[in-house]
Design a protein that fits this description.
A 5-stranded mixed beta barrel has the order 1-2-3-5-4. The N and C termini lie far apart (about 80 Å). By secondary structure, the chain is of the alpha+beta class. The longest helix has 27 residues. β4 and β5 form a beta hairpin. The radius of gyration is 27 Å and the shape is elongated.
């Protein structure tokens, strides 16, 4: 177990725990990330107890979460991602006190691991947020107001092309095939259309 007391190993386990916790938050219920986070955090707690930490460096690591979360909310915020990475690297290098008063975590390890974790989380969390904000196509209400084209003659019922997909539609009036139509409502999984005046 002595190898766990190497500051570089301790740092890798800490970052592994952070990665597991973030993945467990964005993809809950897998069980894998939750169990992995538990073991990483438990081992990190043991290492912190044995090695002690520079708490100001730990605070820097925690503070790096702020600009990271801000950067993933909207596009074109890569500057804040860079700020988060710089703060994380500084906190990582000085996390564990060295006997000679210098640094204990290899700067190269800190930079590579921090950049890898931040980059991976930026992509994974960003994609998860994007998926969560995407309305499912089964929600036919998002089609209301959209314009499409009648693919068949619609007399009570027919087919229309709207939003790049083919839908069953009905109309109170006769709409010839090829006519532009506008979605004005839905009846279950059938959309209601009217002929669009050109």
């Amino acid at each position: 177990m002595d190898f766990l007391l190497d500051p570089n190993i301790a740092y890798l386990l800490l970052m592994g725990g952070v990665l597991m916790v973030m993945m467990a938050l964005v993809t809950p219920g897998t069980g894998f990330f939750e169990v992995g986070a538990f073991f990483c955090i438990a081992l990190t707690g043991y290492e912190i107890y044995k090695l002690s930490v520079n708490w100001w460096a730990m605070i820097l690591i925690v503070l790096s979460i702020g600009p990271f979360l801000y950067s993933i909310q909207k596009p074109k915020r890569e500057l804040y991602l860079g700020v988060s990475l710089v703060i994380l690297v500084l906190g990582s290098i000085f996390l564990f006190p060295a006997e000679d008063g210098g640094i204990s975590v290899n700067p190269f390890v800190a930079i590579v691991v921090s950049a890898s974790v931040v980059g991976f989380l930026w992509i994974a969390v960003g994609k998860s947020i994007q998926v969560a904000q995407t309305k499912p196509m089964q929600d036919l209400d998002i089609l209301i107001g959209k314009v499409g084209e009648a693919r068949t003659t619609i007399l009570k019922e027919g087919s229309v092309q709207v939003g790049g997909e083919l839908w069953t539609a009905r109309s109170e009036t006769n709409i010839p095939a090829g006519s532009p139509v506008r979605v004005v409502g839905r009846d279950g999984f059938v959309i209601v259309v009217v002929k669009k005046d050109s």
